[in-house]
Amino acid sequence: GLSRYGWLMHDGENFGVQEIRDGALFLKTEFVKRPGGEHGGDWSWRVTARMEVSGRRAAWAGRRAGAPDSLPPSSPLPPPLALQATGGPAPLLSLFFYVATDGQGTLEPHLENRTRLAAVTGTAEELGHFTLTFLRPTAESGEDPKYASYNYLEAASPGLHRLTEVVRSSLSNRFVFAPPGKPRRRFFAVDAFRGLPGAVGEPPRGRLLLHQVTLEPPGMVEVTFESGSIADRPGRLAGGALSAALAQHTAAFEQRFEETFRLGHKGFPPPQRRFAQAALSDMLGGMGYFHGRSLVQSPLQEHPVPAPEAALFTAVPSRSFFPRGFLWDEGFHQLLLARWDPALSREVIAHWLDLMNAEGWIPREQILGEEAQAKVPPEFLLQHSETANPPTLLLALQQLLPAAPLPYLRRLFPRLRAWYDWYNRTQAGPLPLTFRWRGRDSQLERFLNPKTLASGLDDYPRASHPSPEERHLDLRCWMALASRVLAEVAERLGEPAGPYREMERALSDNGLLEQLHWAQELGAFADYGNHSTAVGLRWQRVAPAAPGQPPPAPQLVREVREAPRPRFVGALGYVSLFPLLLQLLRPDSPRLPTVLAAMRSERQLWTPFGLRSLARDSPLYMQRNTQHDPPYWRGPIWVNINYLALRALHSYASADGPQQERAAEIYQELRHNLMANLYRQYTESGFLWEQYSDSTGRGQGCHPFAGWSALVVLVMAEDY
């Protein structure tokens, strides 16, 4: 229920600024890393807290929702607002700082008065010797000391994913906040830890030390981490030194952002530039290093088995809601991050390719470690070794290719070849040069249209009855892109590129594409398969388990009113656009005007906010897939596909052909609609969203979603 939280600035390496708004509480967290020594260097955090009176917040909210010059997200902080004037004391605020080991490392607490954790010294394999120091809180100016109560907890750690439970189970309200000359008040604080239910007898995973600071806002707390391998430290990175470093990094970030994306040069006003900075920063701030084992089901084994231990450095769609790697999301993430920091992006792509098994398969979801597993429903933990995901990493690699170091490409190339061969071997379709996503849902009676999670488009309508005869248009287009990129990498390395170029030419052949995927009766490109157009969901009564017992609740089940037959699938939407999205259609293609017309038709894909995922006149538009499964890719607007559409339109608008002018017109309109709506929703709600309503433009689904929705930065920069 936080009204806003996220990174406003983050350079992905040494510096970040985050704001959190929780009711009337405003929190700002900032960090600076100072490289040095043999273990990464020192870092310092500053946490600033204050209360904001409701009248002031309401005025700001009104301005944010109104004119575009509303209060920008990263403006200078307003003056502190004392709440005593409202008739009561300021509420107490407790900040909890967790220090924990996970499997290895040592921690030694250094206490003052048995309650204040002043410092922690320790060792870890990656960090060597280090000292963490918790400085006493001050007023916001950083000058005057601030009265605070301190509490300390030491406990065996049951695992990082359960630390919050440890703290919650240790809270007691027997403590008294007693500032000199002010009323005494009880507050909750950590006390003794008596163990977690169900954890009796489990060996500890590590050690937890917890520092709790309780104060009346406003106030500021700083924490420093000092590496033992730095010999000539210029002084502690705190107080004035930290303020100076933050100011220096802020200026450097803003300059680098402008040099990279040139939004000021393009005429965007400061609030919109700050929005773009926040989108990039939230993606960078959500990056993580994950370690653990995937749970894999192979057709060669009867039962699921844990995969070998793996490590993954990656961006994530949403750090709070989806704190794990998704294969097809990551290619879109890296399109943005490759512009900001090509070396960082190359490292992430290499991590993903290192997850490949001996056959060349990469699990599409990376649920590594207990923290990641704790956020995933059990039915989604299992990864099936025949299930693919779009090879979007190749989109990013194509952008990185011209400047990528040759030794890096040499290490990558065998993995790219194995991955490409795996797709060709396992996802081949029924005819030459056709492809079929494996792993569609098999419980036909449950789903209005069985899902195709492998495609990334989940519930997008496919053939109503999955069969080996299906031909999936989007996968064929992805394979054309893969052939093109493999050829470009091979040519850069002086390796044989002929087979890849030959495959690219075959898959890009517009005549063959039409023969296999143009549905004349639909006037669109389409999938082909065993399909019924008369399918619906109906309520079915369920018989009682035994005589005399009440019947279970009715169930929504699928009803097929017309037998399926081999035909093109009548679902105009994102899949229909793939020959355009991945630029397989020639600029003079006779089909291009029809595709552009469907894109621009308000009856079909066009909205004032972006392209909807499924045409309004499509039979499954906004239809539920099950009783508990609302429409996902059946109408809402998704930024990643809109980005691909803009990228393609931009290309067709610069290529000679009869549709050049029309492509340019649609490009300008679509770019404006998408940017304006994402910015409007951000200023009103405080977040980027997973998807956007095609009828109102409102953000919906998961938030904050600084995954592929952050591609709006590249749209603003017109960097494709």
Automatic annotation (TrEMBL):
GO terms for cellular component: endoplasmic reticulum membrane. It catalyses: N(4)-(alpha-D-Glc-(1->2)-alpha-D-Glc-(1->3)-alpha-D-Glc-(1->3)-alpha-D-Man-(1->2)-alpha-D-Man-(1->2)-alpha-D-Man-(1->3)-[alpha-D-Man-(1->2)-alpha-D-Man-(1->3)-[alpha-D-Man-(1->2)-alpha-D-Man-(1->6)]-alpha-D-Man-(1->6)]-beta-D-Man-(1->4)-beta-D-GlcNAc-(1->4)-beta-D-GlcNAc)-L-asparaginyl-[protein] + H2O = N(4)-(alpha-D-Glc-(1->3)-alpha-D-Glc-(1->3)-alpha-D-Man-(1->2)-alpha-D-Man-(1->2)-alpha-D-Man-(1->3)-[alpha-D-Man-(1->2)-alpha-D-Man-(1->3)-[alpha-D-Man-(1->2)-alpha-D-Man-(1->6)]-alpha-D-Man-(1->6)]-beta-D-Man-(1->4)-beta-D-GlcNAc-(1->4)-beta-D-GlcNAc)-L-asparaginyl-[protein] + beta-D-glucose. Pathway: Glycan metabolism; N-glycan degradation. Residues 240-718 form the Glycosyl hydrolase family 63 C-terminal domain. It is found in: Endoplasmic reticulum membrane. InterPro entries: 6-hairpin_glycosidase_sf, 6hp_glycosidase-like_sf, Glyco_hydro_63_C, Glyco_hydro_63N, Glyco_hydro_63N_sf, Glycoside_hydrolase_63. Its EC number is 3.2.1.106. GO terms for biological process: oligosaccharide metabolic process; protein N-linked glycosylation. Keywords: Endoplasmic reticulum, Glycoprotein, Glycosidase, Hydrolase, Membrane, Signal-anchor, Transmembrane, Transmembrane helix. Signal peptide: none annotated. GO terms for molecular function: Glc3Man9GlcNAc2 oligosaccharide glucosidase activity. It is a single-pass type II membrane protein. Belongs to the glycosyl hydrolase 63 family. This is Mannosyl-oligosaccharide glucosidase. The gene is Mogs.
